[in-house]
Amino acid sequence: MDSQTGSPVEDSPPAPSRERCLTGIQGLDDILGGGIPRGNMILVSGTVGTGKTTLCLEFLVRGAENGERCLFLSVTEASNKLIQNLATFEFFRPELVASGQLVFVDVPVIYDKLGLDREELTAEDTDLLVLTIEGLVKELGAKRVVLDSLTSVCYRIRREERIRDFMLKLSQALSDLDCTTLLVSEVGQAPGRLSLYGVEEAIVDGVILLGNTRRQGDIIRVLQIVKMRGTAHSRAQYVVELTPIGVLMAPHLKGGRQEGA
Predict the structure, then answer these.
(1) Mean pLDDT value across residues 136-165
(2) Which pLDDT score is estimated for 148?
């Protein structure tokens, strides 16, 4: 009953559920409550050797298998080497690349074409980079994008305010195209930091944190969803194994001595 008019008040309809982008990675979709909300930009953050690139590559392969056009933007490693490494996994199908369903693009080639040969990119340079990535996604009709790595791009942007502007513009452009994006990032030195500069994790819609921990003398990989807008999710830590059939996850049973994170 409305206290002002005395009229009955109808219950508000429930908020519509966001469409999900299934990662296809065993266990990850479950802890995300059905996948990543489509259009989100996610930081995949962690130290070296924790499986960031492998997780992102499987995310693209699973999408390509389901008929989505997928784009991998490689900053530091040549695409042909990435594809050779990817071919060692049983889940990889070379015909996805041959058919153009899964596309690899070397970002240094984009830099050369745009004349971005300065050590530090200007605001105009970063705007041009965003427009170029947006145009490439439009041209391909890509619905999944991985940038590996955001850290390498930020090294050339350098200034935190420009990094923030670059990420905000890229997020808006790709979200408007209904594209779900994973950004690979290194963890900074400061305790509690989830990215190199500390601004990246504040801008993205979600953070998947990968790391190493010790259990009974062994070093194991672990994964935790730190945040994910648009969905309820588990914040528990999970053990990650990189196997020939893909990334496997299991709850981290905290028996025995634990060191690091």
Answers:
(1) 97
(2) 97
60-103 pLDDT, tens digit each:
999 999 999 999 999 999 999 999 989 999 999 999 999 999 99
pLDDT at 254: 59
The CATH number of the structural domain formed by 20-210 is 3.40.50.300
What is the percentage of the chain residues whose pLDDT exceeds 90? 77
User: Domain locations in the chain?
Assistant: 20-210
Q: Kindly tell me if the per-residue pLDDT of 16 is higher than 70.
A: no
Residue pointed to by tokens 């619905």: 143
Tokens of 168: 């905000």
What pTM was computed for the model? 0.89
**Tokens 């790709």 belong to which residue?**
174
Q: What is residue 9's predicted lDDT score, i.e. its pLDDT? A: 42
Contact 70, 142 (CB under 8 A): yes
User: From the CB of residue 202, how many other CB atoms can be counted at a distance below 10 Å?
Assistant: 13
Measured between alpha carbons, how far is 35 from 47 in angstroms, rounded to an integer? 24
